[in-house]
Amino acid sequence: MSMETPLGRVRGLGSSGEGAHHWWIERLTSVSTLLLLVWLAVSLLRLPALDHPTIVEWLAGPLGAVPMLLLIVSTFWHLKLGLQVVIEDYVHDDGAKLFWIMVLNFAAILAAALALFAVLKIAFTGSAD
Question: Which CATH number applies to 13-125?
Answer without folding.
Answer: 1.20.1300.10
